Structure formats: C-alpha cells, structure tokens
C-alpha cells in the first residue's frame, strides 16, 4: 500500500501491512467509523487454508503520525473468514460496511494460487490469474463490526461479480447495500489497459496524451 497526499495526490512512501499485522495484502478502499477507526480487508494463507481477514486500526493519538506517515499501531484482525473453496479463493476489490455490520461478498471470480505466487516473476498481468467460475454461488458473509463475530447464516445469490460497493445502511431491521454488479465476470478482463488500447487504438493514445498535457 502507498500513502497519497489528499491535497496534491502525490504518491508517498510504501507501507507494508505485514510488518504490523498478519495479513498478506489489503484493499485500496478502507472504511472509517465515527470514532475515527479504520477498517479494511486483507488475505492470510497458511497450511490451514486461505482466509479473508477483517482489520481494524484504532484512531491514532499521534497527530504527527497522522500527517507524516501511515500509523498502523494497534492494528488487529477482528474476524477471519475461511474461503468456501480453500484452493480457489475469490477475488475482491472492496467490501461493505454499515453502522453495525461488515459484509464480505465472496464471488465466483477465482484466483489460481500457484499463478498468484508466480505472476510477478512470470511477468503476467494480474488478470491472468483470475477465472470466472459461475458454478459457484455468490456468498454474503455478515460480520458484527463491534464484536467481530460472523453470522452463522450464509446468504447466497446467483453468480455475479462486483468491484465497488457504493453505499450501505440499516433501515428497520434490514441491511441495504448499493453495489455495481454484473452477471458475467469474464468482463473483468476487458478492463486492462492492454485491451482498452487494442479497442481504442490511436483515439486512446490521444486521450491519454491530452489528459497528461492538462495535468
């Protein structure tokens, strides 16, 4: 993860989450509660299997640390969700958080773990290690944000894919989620820069040039 200056959008130093907490990665879309705590999701994998981990970072009491560096002091895993298919964990880009709950959407876009370990060495794009496998359901894992306890009830839906969860709120005992969803996860391969340039050709290069010039 890299810090970004919120005013200038300048990229700052890289922060290795694994130096602070037992996770192998974290999303680029954390959530924040009213008290200033940060919530994120990461992965952990071992001989016991593959887990989706929910991370909580308490509000920093160090003002200088807030401004000058990423303060991960006190970070903890509040819930570890085992993958439904330990050898085929699901890809995710973000997660849902409401006032009292966190929802992780385990979707049928699967990762090839061997390629996941080697894709950088092999020089392949991240998309090459993903596969759309609609024989699996979409599973919604509901977790109490305050206790870290996962609901025993598994909520299932037809195969779908989602990248961004837009909003979530609680209304009269219901948890309402707004998400951008698609019925065919194969389309995720169309989002690579390589494919965009192949489709757009010179027009894409012109737009790219224009944007860089204006910036």
UniProtKB/TrEMBL annotation:
Highest taxon above the source species: Eukaryota
Keywords: Iron, Metal-binding
UniProt keyword annotation of Iron present: yes
Cofactor(s) required for function per UniProt: Fe(2+)
Stored PANTHER family: BETA-CAROTENE 15, 15-DIOXYGENASE 2, BETA-CAROTENE DIOXYGENASE
Family assignment from sequence similarity: Belongs to the carotenoid oxygenase family.
Protein name: BCDO2
Lineage: Eukaryota, Metazoa, Chordata, Craniata, Vertebrata
């Amino acid at each position: 993860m890299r810090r970004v200056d919120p005013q200038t959008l300048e990229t700052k130093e890289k922060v290795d989450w694994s130096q602070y907490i037992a996770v192998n990665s974290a999303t680029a879309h954390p959530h924040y509660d009213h008290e200033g705590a940060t919530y994120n999701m990461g992965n952990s994998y071992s001989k016991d299997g593959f887990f989706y981990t929910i991370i909580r970072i308490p509000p920093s009491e160090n003002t200088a640390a807030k401004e000058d560096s990423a303060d991960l002091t006190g970070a903890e895993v509040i819930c570890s969700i085992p993958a439904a298919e330990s050898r085929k964990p699901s890809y995710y880009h973000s997660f849902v958080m409401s006032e009292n709950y966190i929802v992780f959407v385990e979707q049928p876009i699967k990762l090839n773990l061997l390629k996941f370990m080697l894709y950088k060495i092999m020089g392949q794009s991240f998309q090459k290690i993903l596969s759309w496998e609609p024989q699996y359901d979409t599973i919604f894992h509901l977790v109490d944000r305050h206790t870290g306890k996962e609901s025993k009830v598994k909520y299932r839906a037809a195969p779908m894919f989602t990248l961004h969860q837009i909003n979530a709120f609680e209304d009269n005992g219901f948890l309402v989620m707004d998400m951008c969803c698609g019925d065919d996860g194969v389309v995720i391969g169309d989002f690579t820069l390589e494919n965009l340039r192949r489709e757009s050709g010179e027009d894409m290069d012109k737009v790219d040039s224009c944007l860089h010039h204006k910036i």
